[in-house]
Design goal:
Helix content: 25-40%
Number of domains: 2
Radius of gyration: 19 Å
Strand content: 15-25%
Distance between the termini: 33 Å
Order of helices and strands: HEHHHHHEHEEEEHEHEEH
Bound molecules: 2'-O-acetyl adenosine-5-diphosphoribose
Shape: elongated
Structural class: alpha/beta
CATH architecture of the largest domain: 3-Layer(aba) Sandwich
CATH topology of the largest domain: Rossmann fold
CATH class of the largest domain: Alpha Beta
Largest sheet: 6 strands, parallel
Low-confidence stretches: none
Length: 251
């Protein structure tokens, strides 16, 4: 038996078409069809022996900065080799079609921006950026170290680190505030490719719904959000999101 045909409900199409303010929350599933490995999937070979806490915590970086740097350098190279997929492009198109829009992503791969999304907040940072571990300043120009250590901040000499949120760290306050504001303000919130389990991002759908938004889940699998979402579109984001955007905004 093939998979069931995708049906986009008419009332959802009408709501999206009429909405003046749309927000989107994305997670790893949106990049799955680009071939971006999840944190755990990337733990192949040499890296399989490590607990994630040895690769992505402030304590791990303090103990072994080279190991953490090398892990992120490897993942940065993986991300550089992949391309945005139809899910990313559909969300960029949606942004062009609605007056007020915000895309909050938990992904660190920068694929939304590469697909043309502009109004993006990165809740967990971006693996392609590097910042000073002490001052937090993002450093635009840096070289891979020739020796055994991560490169140093040109301004203060501290180690540079990936500009991502590690386990045990807070989300960037401005990004979270912008996402919460969008959730409270929007008329439709699309939640795509996220397990909806990792807080505080996982709280955004309930915040939006309490404020009166229609919440739409796009995911091939059931999540804790599925029971509460107003619409659940089961299927891969690379199929569902282009279909949803094309139904609401035919070219
Ligand atoms: P998860 O890996 O927890 O969940 C990925 C979700 O994507 C699952 O619900 C899958 O069913 C779904 N999925 C898989 N393939 C899909 C596809 N083709 N289209 C749509 N959905 C698909 O990823 P996140 O929810 O992003 O945090 O996890 C959130 C955070 O947890 C991550 O950012 C990371 C992790 O700990 C940090 O690194 C701080």
């Amino acid at each position: 038996m093939g998979s069931p045909a995708l049906v986009i409900p008419g009332d959802l199409v009408a709501a999206l078409r009429a909405a003046r303010d749309v927000a989107v929350l994305t997670g790893a599933g949106v990049s799955a069809e680009s071939g971006v490995p999840t944190f755990r999937d990337a733990q192949q070979g040499l890296w399989a022996q490590f607990d994630p806490r040895e690769l992505a915590t402030p304590a791990a970086f303090a103990r072994n900065p080279k190991r953490v740097w090398d892990w992120y350098a490897m993942r940065r190279e993986m991300v550089a080799r992949v391309a945005p997929n139809p899910a990313h492009f559909a969300l960029a198109e949606l942004e062009r079609r609605v007056p007020a829009f915000l895309l909050a992503t938990q992904n660190v791969d920068g694929l939304h921006q590469r697909a043309g999304s502009v109004r993006v907040v990165e809740l967990h940072g971006n693996i392609t950026r590097v910042r000073c571990a002490d001052e937090g300043t993002v450093v635009a120009q840096w070289c891979e170290p020739a020796d055994a250590l991560p490169p140093r901040c040109p301004a203060c000499g501290a180690f540079l680190r990936p500009d991502v949120v590690w386990f045990e760290e807070m989300l960037p306050a401005d990004a979270l505030a912008a996402a919460e504001d969008a959730a409270r303000r929007c008329e439709v919130l699309i939640v795509a490719g996220t397990s909806a389990e990792v807080y505080p991002a996982a709280a955004l759908p309930a915040q939006a719904q309490r404020a009166g938004a229609l919440v739409v889940e796009v995911n091939p699998n059931e999540t804790p959000l599925s029971a509460d979402a107003d619409h659940v579109l089961r299927g891969p984001a690379g199929v569902v999101l282009p279909a949803l955007v094309a139904a609401a905004f035919p070219r």
